[in-house]
């Protein structure tokens, strides 16, 4: 993606002004992030989302333990988002999935994958997707969000491994990367066991287009 065009199409004029004044044609983080909108994913976005995930994460993304909790399921109702740039292209993606914490345990959301177009990294798009996802999850009444990821990144949104010591993923994962954020205080009190998929199942034809 051509960032310069992206910004011009997005209507941010400060980049052009400062490039004349300072000889720097790079748009700022704020300008790039400000030119994308975080919106609900539609069926028309699926192919672009999958291509972006392949670009950002490579083929190993399909072998992750989290994938066991997602395969054959739909994301939690209203919890699939994309970052759409001014030209309508998919610049980032995040989805959240219904799980239970242990057999018959409390409900929670599993977040992932989160990914941003590699050519637009570090412009704040990942953060915008995360903030939107957390806000919507809270608004819809979800009590907690879990994910497997890097604490140095997700810590800024309030995620930590402090409350996940008695929880486990259904497959290989690094324990210190299982992170959680309580949206309702105490939601993870006493939570223990292996996460289980609890999402609505995909129909056969949906499975073909979702993968
Ligand atoms: C991780 C990812 C979603 C971040 O999106 P982004 O739009 O680039 O992130 P933001 O612009 O909101 O934040 C960028 C900041 O996060 C930091 N960051 C990015 N990934 C990080 C990581 N894994 N650990 C620690 N910090 C990280 C960047 O260094 C940058 O720091 P700065 O603000 O001090 O410059 C994106 O880099 C990506 O798609 N990566 C490949 C897929 C992936 O790894 N997904 C996450 C699975 S855990």
TrEMBL record:
CDD domains: NAT_SF (cd04301)
InterPro entries according to UniProt: Acyl_CoA_acyltransferase, GNAT_dom
Region (Disordered): 55-75
Keyword entries, A-Z: Acyltransferase, Transferase
Pfam families attached to this UniProt entry: Acetyltransf_1
EC numbers, comma separated: 2.3.-.-
Residue span, N-acetyltransferase domain: 36-184
Residues in coiled coil: none
GO molecular function, one term: acyltransferase activity
Domain of life: Bacteria
Entry protein name: GNAT family N-acetyltransferase
Organism: Mesorhizobium newzealandense
